[in-house]
Amino acid sequence: MAEPEHPRTDRSPWNWLLVVPIVVPLLTPLYNFDEPRLGGFPLFYWLQFAFILLGVTTTTVVYQMTKRGRRG
Amino acid sequence: MGDHIVEISVFAFLFLLVSVMGFIASRWRAPQDMAHLDEWGLGGRSFGGWITWFLVGGDLYTAYTFVAVPALIFGAGAAGFFAVPYTVVIYPIFFLILIRLWSVSHRHGFVTPADFVRTRFDSPTLALLIAITGITATMPYIALQLIGIEAVLKTMGMTGESAFARHLPIIVAFAILAAYTYQSGLRAPALIAFVKDTLIYLVIIVAVLWLPSQLGGWSAIFDAADAKFQASPAPGDGIILNANNQIQYFTLALGSALALFLYPHSITGVLASKNRNVIKRNMSALPAYSLLLGLIALLGYMAIAAGVKPLPGAKPGSVDGNTVVPLLFDMHFPAWFAGVAFAAIGIGALVPAAIMSIAAANLFTRNIYKEYLRRDATPAQEATVAKVTSLVVKLGAVACIIFLDPQFSIDLQLIGGVIILQTAPSVMVGLFTRWLHRGGLIAGWVAGMGLGFWMLWQIPNAVTGRAHFGGSAFSLAEFGFDTTRTVYAGFVAVLVNLLVAVIVSVALRAAGTPEGTDGTKPDDYFADADDPRIDRDLRLDVAEGAK
């Protein structure tokens, strides 16, 4: 399994995608509103719930694209 | 207490069930030799995806979180919802940083973050500071788990006349917890976490589907909360944020995320997983708990809509906000299901309490006992010391609750979050670069701790009428800014910490102060399960040579 001729690294351009779910949920001006409501939920709540999905999607993509044995 | 007999029976049954599981856990995935810290304290570093998901989920989302976050929402509204962004941003951060810690720990056999700092910066002093910070921050966190159980017991009417009678159920619960943690180590909470999380998911799914229909729908729930906050004179509340608490909201979310990563118990849970892919996969699966936490948080609004009045607190005239969710369940669920819900919270306290006490015990054993008291300790002696320490830690937590005002533990936990953040430059930055000088890191730690304490001391709480330690929202006006905005104290403290560390590092380097040698190699940070362990191999060599 070990490939000593290739110095190993975690470096990948895909990692930059993880900046999105770290920064977006912290930008309060983006979601600090009551309207429009969705299913009775003020925007403040449903949009932040949606950020969970954003986090899951981006981490899954980055994981799949940076798995060992797959370069690029 | 008579009218709660069904609830108490269901609660007691489920509690006994997990206690039995806790003792059986020592035979689960049994090792050849339990007398090693890797086995007792890290479950053999062998946990796969599912176990890690339950273990880390059960570890990070504690019983206290489950009662305190909705209590915060109940009291202050939107500001309490920081728990959601907090648990969204944490996983990408974990994803990028924790795998490096896992790899280097795997290579070197590190059990604690302080082990890493010791080898990376060649400084037992810095490692000692990290260890003490970790233990100090963890202790009140364990005590808070007891507060979570107490909120449930109180709702079930189990309130004795004397202080002793009132605390007896907690003492019994913790004695059982201590016994099976002693015997089974990290395997006990790992096994119990399955039950805990299944119960919590069940209860919350039922609650969010069933309760809104009882309370007139989500719109009515949010409107009821809005009406309550409109009527209250407090300036900071409301169902959305206002101009003053937005900086506090995001700095608290970010600061809490970084702090949670640094808490010894989260690192223990992560180091117990068997390879890098388990960790990476979990970072996309763990947010399921964030969804759960967000829904739990909204129980606070449901409690407002349902007209819940919190039970009285320890001091006359005060109220115990932590009882709002248990009361909501008590009012709107059939007795047997309320019993299940209470058991979920009660068992939810046991899993993190066990992991936290193991993490604190690992820190003491590796970075104080082995470093300063007995340098030639064998792995078996390490395991024994850790087991005994875990007992002492739990005893301390129970004593905190019985003999001190519970408010003291809450204050300490607030301080704990701020002080654990002060280990970030050593542990987190240290995983990427050794540019910061060990002397600079120590200086930064001192500065961050000092400033953090001072800021918390300065924060009053208008609601409870306390002059100090009234929360973590520091008014920027104190720094001389002409504003009413607030910021999370820990966030400012760690920035100053980092700044001091940088300045002192430059100064020490200019003065030619020795930096020590780095015990790790760049390649160590990418090692995976199939790479050999450096420390263990050495230890075997020594044993062979001695024969």
In short:
The complex is a heterodimer of chains A (72) and B (547). With 72 residues, chain A is mostly helical. In chain A, 40% of the residues lie in helices and 0% in strands.
Defining key terms:
heterodimer; A: about 70 residues; mainly alpha; 2 helices; about 0% strand; elongated; disordered N terminus; B: about 550 residues; Sodium/glucose cotransporter; two-stranded antiparallel ribbon; 22 helices; about 70% helix; globular; disordered C terminus
Topology:
The complex is a heterodimer of chains A (72) and B (547).
Chain A: H1 19-23, H2 43-66
Chain B: H1 5-24, H2 37-40, H3 49-60, H4 63-76, H5 83-108, H6 113-121, H7 124-155, H8 163-184, H9 187-214, H10 217-231, H11 246-262, H12 264-271, H13 276-285, H14 287-305, H15 324-332, H16 335-373, H17 379-403, H18 406-421, H19 424-427, H20 438-458, E1 473-475, E2 486-488, H21 489-510, H22 534-546
Helix pairs in contact in B: 1-8, 1-9, 1-16, 3-9, 3-12, 3-16, 4-7, 4-14, 4-16, 5-11, 5-13, 5-14, 6-7, 7-16, 7-17, 7-18, 8-17, 9-14, 9-16, 10-14, 11-18, 12-16, 14-15, 15-16, 16-17, 18-21, 20-21
Structure description:
The complex is a heterodimer of chains A (72) and B (547). Chain A is mostly helical and 72 residues long. Chain A has one domain (13-66). In chain A, 40% of the residues lie in helices and 0% in strands. Chain A is elongated. Chain B is mostly helical and 547 residues long. Chain B has one domain (2-428): Sodium/glucose cotransporter. Chain B has 22 helices and two strands. In chain B, strands 1-2 form a two-stranded antiparallel ribbon. In chain B, α5 (83-108) packs antiparallel against α14 and α8 (163-184) runs antiparallel to α17 (379-403). Chain B starts with a helix and ends with a helix. The interface between A and B is large, with 41 and 46 residues.
